[in-house]
Specification:
This protein has 108 residues and is mainly α. It has 3 helices and no strands. The radius of gyration is 39 Å and the shape is flat.
């Protein structure tokens, strides 16, 4: 199977063809081992038991429960808004920051 090639392009093309042949061969073996037929061409596996829906459904609440819940949430929002008044923010000029402070403390 040793063959001489005239240039690199011919050698690379032969190598690519050999790789394609090998991949086709391995895919054929995989398909034969898994017993796939043409009717299952979607690629999905077939389970013996059908899957059922999960039991994680969202519970439905009655109108009264919803009203109580929303009233409770509204009260919590009102409580959050009862913060004290904001202090006035004073922007300082760094050169004037020492005004009003005892000179001894500024010198230290």
């Amino acid at each position: 199977m040793h063959q001489e090639y005239a240039n690199d392009r011919d050698w690379i093309e032969a190598l690519r063809q050999a790789v394609r042949d090998q991949e086709d061969f391995q895919e054929g073996i995989r398909l034969r081992d898994n017993h796939f037929s043409a009717s299952h061409s979607s690629g999905k596996t077939q389970d013996d038991e059908p899957t059922t829906a999960k039991a994680t459904k969202i519970p439905k609440y009655a109108a009264k429960e919803k009203r109580i819940y929303h009233a409770k949430k509204k009260e919590e929002k009102v409580d959050k808004q009862k913060a004290g008044p904001r202090q006035k923010i004073i922007h300082w000029v760094s050169a004037d920051a020492h005004i009003g402070i005892n000179q001894k403390i500024v010198d230290e």
